[in-house]
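Per reviewer request, we include the raw input and output of the structure prediction for the construct analysed in the revised manuscript.
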Amino acid sequence: MSLTHHASGQLFGYTTLPEENGYWGILLPRPTDQTEKSAPDAQDVVQEITADHLVFDVGHSVSDRGFLLTLFAPMALIVAGFMVWIQFPEPHPEAPQHIQLIIGAMLGALAAAFGFTAYRSARKPLPPNVYISRPLRKDLAWQEKSKTWLALDYDTLWPATYARKMFTTSGSSTLYALTLHQLKPGTRKIEHTVTPAPLRGTPDQCRAIWEFIRCYMDGKPEDLPPIRLVPSIQNPQSWMARADRTVFGGLIDDDHRIKFKDIVFAYFVVYFWGTVNYWGERAACWIERTAPRTPLPDWLPPSTSAEQTASLYRDIQPTPTQLQAQEGTLPHMRRRWLICGVLSTALWGFMFGSLVVRLWLLGH
């Protein structure tokens, strides 16, 4: 693959699956390949597993919506308040009334746009995660554009890992996506693509998740390693523990302490992003818990009961420390998030406060 093709694929998506590994990514063994399997590892991102289906957690993608909600909701209130305030004649008694009305209408439209963005961030239905059905041997993925479910035949999939350059407020980094492709018959043209699991830090982690899927689909439950489920989104108190797992990943250890390895970098990222997006992460967890969700298709077989699942798959029970974290009572975790919350409130309070002052001065 040429560098131009690679750059185009990074920007607009790949349309053809390369035949060899390269800087674009790595081809993985297909479901029907008899190659030697590597060690499966769910990477602590399993949301739900039963004898019928496997679902990975991709909750980190909601962070963007939480950030938009906490940014545009105050903006809408500030602009709407300024719009109402300028309608009073005291600030500019000599100003023509029609000028005030035009400015008020412009500010009203701006406030409405901000408010609509905040509302859509909070109430837009959440797309379902990719649903891997063992009995049907299908990967089910929701198609937002067509508002339909896409069912890919598991045995015909072409798995690969792609390198993705990510740019955020805390810098740039290279992450890797496990992608499953359905190709057009007789070609290497990509017809459909799904990403069943969240982005990972290395290609080996993506391969470990793929081997976990292969083992789940064609192996026995006892062949899978013990699984640690992501903290439930239904418990409002677990948002800090959940954010530690889904947002900071490898920077936080099992006891919810910042890892000593690369401690300077880890402290910088955790406290920087915690300060910038503390309220965004809280809003994201609220959105995950309350936003409407697209229902699964009616033709899907009923799921196995939780009691049967517990006897089939080994799960890692939370330690007392992790239970405290999930209940939101772990002291050192609460202290870290409290510091982030205070700094975040001061940061955004200063920014929004400065905007209010500037608008007030503009009105005079």
